[in-house]
Structure formats: C-alpha cells, structure tokens
Design goal:
Blueprint: H1 2-24, H2 30-73, H3 79-82, H4 87-141, H5 148-179, E1 188-191, H6 192-209, E2 213-217, E3 223-226, H7 228-244, E4 251-258, E5 262-269, H8 301-311, E6 315-320, E7 326-333
Parallel strand pairs: 2-4
Antiparallel strand pairs: 1-3, 4-5, 5-7, 6-7
Helix pairs in contact: 1-2, 2-4, 4-5, 5-8, 6-7, 7-8
Bound molecules: adenosine-5'-diphosphate.
Residues 237, 241-242, 245, 269, 271-274, 282, 287-289, 292, 297-303, 326 line the site of adenosine-5'-diphosphate.
C-alpha cells in the first residue's frame, strides 16, 4: 500500500517536472521535445493507472462495508474481520457498536411505550370506579321519590368518591413533578428527630383509631443530609402503610442508627408482612398485593417514597416475611 502511495506521489511530481521542462524547452530541439512528450505520456498513464487502482480499492472497500453492515443487521457474525488490523475491520467495529446502540435505544423505547400504556390503563382503572359511582348516585339523587335521609346518604357517598378522585389526582401530580425534576429538594444537615416528628404527627390519629402504639428511639442530636418536608412525606407513606397493614392493637417501632456514610431510619411493624415473591415489586408504580384489595390505596406510596429518598442520594429497602411484620430501612447520607 505504502509503495503504491510513493509511486503515485513520485508520478505526480515527475509529471509536474515534465510539464515545467516542456515550457522551458518549448523552443528546444525536436529530440528533446519528443523525449519529454514520451515521458509526459508515460507518467500520465501511470497516474491514470493508479487512479483506476484506487477507485477499484475504494469500490471493494465500500461494497465490503455494505456487506458487513447487512450481515450485522441480519444478526450474522463479523468476528473474522474484526480481528484484523485493517481499515475495514475498524469501520465494521464502529458499525457494530452503532448498531448495538440503536438496538438498545429501540428496546428502551419499546419498554417506555409499554410502561406508558400500563400507566394509562392503571390511571383509567383508578378513575373509572369513583366516576361510575358518582354517576350512579347522581342518577339516584335525581329520582322523584327519593327520601331525605337517602339523599343525605347518597350525597355523602358522592363526596367520598370526589375526595378519592382528588387524592388520586394530587398523588399523580406529586409523582409526575418529582419524576420531571420540577420539585427541587432542599437538602441540608437537618435533625432527624424533627423530620420524624412531622411524619409521626400526621399518622398518630389514624394509628390511635386502631389502637396501634408508635414508639420512637432516636438521639435528638442525630443529623443527616435531607429535605425535611419531602423526607417526612416519604417516611409518612411508610408509616401510613405500617398502620394500614397492621391489625388493631399492633405496634410500630421507629429506630434511628448512625453509620459512617448513612443514617438509617428503621420503621418496623407487627403487621401482615410481605410475601417473599412480592418484595421486589412493592416499590413499583401502581403495584399492590392481591390480598390488600379491600384496603384503600393506589400503589403509589412506596414508589414516591423511594423516589424522594434516591433523589437525595439515599436508598430504601425492606425485610419482611408473610405473617411476621415488615421492617423498612430508610438510609440518608451523612455527607453532601
Ligand atoms: P398502597 O399501600 O397504596 O397499596 P404502596 O406503594 O404504599 O401502595 O405499597 C405497595 C404494596 O406493598 C401494598 O399494596 C402492600 O401490598 C405492600 N406493603 C407496603 N407496606 C407494607 C407493610 N408495612 N406491610 C405489609 N405490606 C405492605
């Protein structure tokens, strides 16, 4: 290849030299002119040959690249050429990389599309029930022979269904704003006890209704880098579940431990527990176990809680066994 390059360059240089001599010896003798013409023709032919040679090589190169590209698209192997240190092997490697990236993006798009379809059908399902209830009770309210006490009862049911719709809408907006980074968390080295106080205060009334005792063990000086409002919301969702899925007279323990990198908040309950095969699903959007269909819920509480904690560079996990209660671990960073 290199030799051919030198020949081509030399041919061009000599061609130029002949051209100059031609001009210089324009008025020289016939022999000189004939000699120069012969030389000029010779180098021109050499140039033409090298042009044809390179054109042929280029065509071969392009058609082999096209063949390999086709082979990659059809899922064939291109390993033989990839082991060689040639220009086409480099091009094929790059082509294959590009193909893999495109396929990966296509797969991701497909997954996103499926996820979106699932989400739309879940939201439709969640909205449909309260809407059809409202529709039904509105129809009954408009009947002529309705008794006043029935009217009050139906109106209360409609109010409840409207509250449910409002709650669903609020939760969906919250989760979408968190996902699209529209909510900026204000992380600072805040006291854990203050965040726990906000979360526990919001649940204490609900817990007392089921005679569930909540005990908190936390050093008042314990601190971690977190946003008080949003972390209280995440812990609140976990506490809300602990109350919901724990029978009357149960217990909830909140325990705070500080490690080198993270401070861990444990929320332990004496509730129904989670089956081992569902543990990996409970943090997914809209996921609910079948046995909780009789309990109020949207399947968004843990999804939002995990989102809030991971946005703060922390993490959540759970230890649980069916019938033996659950323990959620919320780990918050000690350093920014
Ligand atoms: P929701 O409580 O509205 O159904 P979540 O996202 O908060 O939705 O929880 C998802 C699922 O995880 C619940 O439906 C329930 O099956 C399970 N789960 C969560 N927390 C607990 C708990 N403390 N005890 C038992 N099961 C729980």
């Amino acid at each position: 290849m290199k030799v051919i390059k030198y020949i081509l360059v030399s041919a061009n240089v000599l061609l130029l030299a002949c051209g100059s001599l031609f001009v210089f010896y324009e008025n020289g003798g016939l022999i000189k002119q004939v000699l120069l013409t012969v030389l000029f023709l010779f180098f021109s032919i050499l140039n033409l040959c090298s042009y044809l040679y390179f054109r042929r090589r280029f065509i071969n190169f392009s058609s082999s690249i096209c063949n390999y590209a086709e082979n990659i698209i059809n899922g064939g192997s291109v390993k033989n050429i990839q082991n060689k240190e040639t220009l086409s092997s480099k091009a094929v490697t790059e082509l294959e990389k590009m193909y893999r990236i495109i396929m990966y993006r296509l797969e991701e798009n497909k997954k996103d599309k499926k996820e979106l379809q699932k989400m739309v059908s879940e939201i439709t399902h969640q909205i449909k029930t309260p809407l059809s209830n409202i529709n039904m009770y509105c129809g009954m309210l408009s009947e002529k022979d309705i008794l006043p006490e029935q009217a009050v009862q139906f109106t209360n049911i409609i109010k409840q269904q409207l509250l449910k719709l409002g709650f669903l809408l609020d939760t969906l907006i919250k989760s979408s704003r968190l996902e699209t980074d529209m909510i900026k968390l204000k992380q600072a080295n805040n006291k854990i006890i203050e965040t726990l106080a906000v979360a526990v205060n919001n649940i204490i009334y609900k817990a007392s209704h089921k005679n569930i005792e909540i005990s908190v063990e936390c050093n008042p000086l314990e601190r971690a880098y977190h946003d008080v409002k949003w972390t209280a919301e995440a812990i609140g969702n976990i506490l809300d579940n602990a109350v919901k899925y724990t029978p009357v007279n149960g217990k909830i323990y909140i325990l705070v431990n500080s490690g080198e990198m993270y401070t861990t908040i444990q929320v332990k309950d004496t509730g129904k527990g989670i089956k081992a095969e569902h543990i990996n699903d409970i943090f997914k959007r809209f996921y609910r176990e079948e046995d909780v269909s009789g309990t109020e819920g949207l399947g968004l509480g843990l999804y939002i809680a995990r989102h809030i904690i991971t946005l703060q560079k922390g993490y959540i996990y759970v230890n649980s066994e069916a019938g033996k209660g659950s323990c959620f671990f919320i780990c918050l960073p000690n350093h920014f």
